[in-house]
Amino acid sequence: MLKSDGLGVRGTTREIGFERAQLGAVTATSKLVGRQPSETSPLGGCAGGPMDAVRWSNGLTLFFQDGDFRGWRQDGPGPTTATGLAVGASYATAAGQTSFAAAGVQGSLSPTGTITALRAGNTCRS
């Protein structure tokens, strides 16, 4: 489950919170997703300095800075928030709005109001 302060395990109180060490966060997320990451990339030019991006084939990317989990982005079908926000779902906004924020999660929208990406914490374009 996507959360404003990390990732959660639906139906439990278990979570992978921001600030968790990279190895532990990647291992736990791989168990949640059911597969290993498909890509790990160093990223320069990010706010606050370089980051590492770890991406899974379902569109989930975790961002790490100085070895700690700092943020996530979901840009494909996959996990949702507790309130049901999900990539591919509709989100009602004012006409022409291309982004939104709800309960600490930011999102990007298509011109028709479909969610194209969700993110929280510190992220960087990968």
Task: Give short descriptive properties of this protein.
seven-stranded antiparallel sheet, three-stranded antiparallel sheet
CA-atom Rg in angstroms: 14 Å
The largest β sheet comes out as: 7 strands, antiparallel
Q: What percent of residues are in strands?
A: 35-45%
Give the overall silhouette: globular
Poorly predicted segments: none
- Overall pLDDT score: 92
Side-by-side strand order of the widest sheet = 4-5-6-7-10-9-8
Offer a concise description of the structure.
The chain contains 1 helix and 10 strands, in the order E-E-E-H-E-E-E-E-E-E-E.
Question: Secondary structure elements and their pairing?
Answer:
Layout: E1 2-3, E2 6-8, E3 15-17, H1 22-33, E4 39-43, E5 51-55, E6 60-65, E7 68-74, E8 99-102, E9 105-109, E10 115-121
Antiparallel strand pairs: 1-2, 2-3, 4-5, 5-6, 6-7, 7-10, 8-9, 9-10
Structural features, described:
With 126 residues, the chain is mostly beta strands. The chain has one domain (2-120). 10% of the residues lie in helices and 37% in strands. The protein has 1 helix and 10 strands, in the order E-E-E-H-E-E-E-E-E-E-E. It has a 7-stranded antiparallel β-sheet with strand order 4-5-6-7-10-9-8. A 3-stranded antiparallel β-sheet has the order 1-2-3, with helices on one face. Strand 5 (51-55) and strand 6 form a beta hairpin. It is globular, with a radius of gyration of 14 Å.
